[in-house]
Fold this protein.
Amino acid sequence: MLEIDLPSKQHDESRQGEALILESKSNLPNQRKLYIESYGCAMNFSDSEIVASILSEQGFSTTNEYEDADVIFINTCSIRENAETRVRNRLKQFRAVKRQNKDLVIGVLGCMAERLKSKFLEEEKLVDVVVGPDAYRDLPNLIAQVNDGHKAINVLLSREETYADLSPIRLNSNGISAFISIMRGCDNMCSFCVVPFTRGRERSRDPFSIIREAEELRDAGYKEVTLLGQNVDSYKWKPHPRSFSEGEGGAGETTSASSTSLSFGEGRGEAPINFAKLLEMVAAVSPDMRVRFSTSHPKDITNEVLETIAKHENICNYIHLPVQSGNSRILDLMNRTYTREWYLDRIKAIREIIPDCAISSDIITGFCTETEEDHQETLSLMDFVKFEFAYMYSYSERPGTPAAKKFADDVPEDVKQRRLEEIIALQQKSSHFRAQNRLGKIEKVLVEGLSKKSKSDYSGRSDHNHMVIFPVKEDVKPGDYVNVLIEKTTTATLIGRIV
Ligand code: SAM
Ligand code: SF4
């Protein structure tokens, strides 16, 4: 994947393979130690927090040295071939520790585990346990099986599991921003994509457990939450009658609802809660806590959602709206279920309803049968919209996907790469153009911490998700909001001073 100067955290290249550490629990000498590293999208990083939560109940602490671990987990991504190659290479590095510590448990979690299932155990002899994204509650049992000398696997996908009742343990947290998973799986079946096969059917999480998690984060001092789902606009929750008389997320736990704009009857009555309503509920948790979300799908994003964003000061004016291609024929082959015109109409609606809204996108070059003219249409759409940021990929055929079954991967690799370079070059210009538009403006920035490059600067993000760098000021600390006058820019980073 190639991305430029990208501030968004939904797929953070700098975090790939990061070992996640639970800082808040003491490391008692006899505690078993978990080393967990994550690859891929924000959802995987969020899932690793669920895994840590489940294992901490079993007395595990975390370590950032895999040589010290009793259990090593890799939470994997299958979205492109190179994501899988990266994991295979990483596994090789664990061989030496396994040789020295025969009791060490090595597990593969997430999308690659789900895609390859027991084949993984056959192909990678080092691996003891393979666990799909809906089976994390079974981890203590699976680890016990391995401790008893067996290989263990659970790759069952669920139609219900949302881990709603689990309070994820925040790993590597800056104490300021956190992810909240609002749904799992995907029903869209974009022809290039492996996600529906690795993460199963779409299901929405009980909104009251989402609000409870947001309130817990607020009470712990967090200032920003990002609501996560593969297609957040299709969030829909209609209560099961049972959920109001018993168990997690039932009426007994809806005290939080009274502190939001959700009237108590809603959610209990006939009207399901959609994404616009959920956004409103989360925004009402605290005016001081920013709300972001990812990812929106062009076919589903409604004016109601846009109006909700426009209405609430603390819902950020930033939408990630992946287009994938600017050509309607290719979009059809991709089964994206919208056309170029539809996408541009959605952009128009965003600009009308939220006049100052940043928009980013995902783009794939070299999808099956893509001609030079099709590619030019992607460039012209990009040039027209001028995205703030973009994640850009060349098409990687994934086994078992509809595209792999139906179409030949017929664009030569060098052509894919050349097209990718062209879209990157154009995106760089757009990002620079958008950043330049911010010159002389005052941005409200949430301070995240010291800049990576200089201890005398802070870094934080603007409402529009731009990374902003500015000199440290004595009375300002991470977690504060400050107004920064923008005086300079790089390609996409804004540089200024507090005013
Ligand atoms: N659900 C989100 C959506 O529909 O936009 C994101 C899904 S995926 C994790 C993130 C991005 O990976 C997609 O938007 C797409 O651009 C890219 N992607 C998915 N499958 C791919 C493939 N086979 N080859 C190249 N890029 C791919
Ligand atoms: Fe994959 Fe499409 Fe679902 Fe996104 S919406 S996860 S690209 S199938």
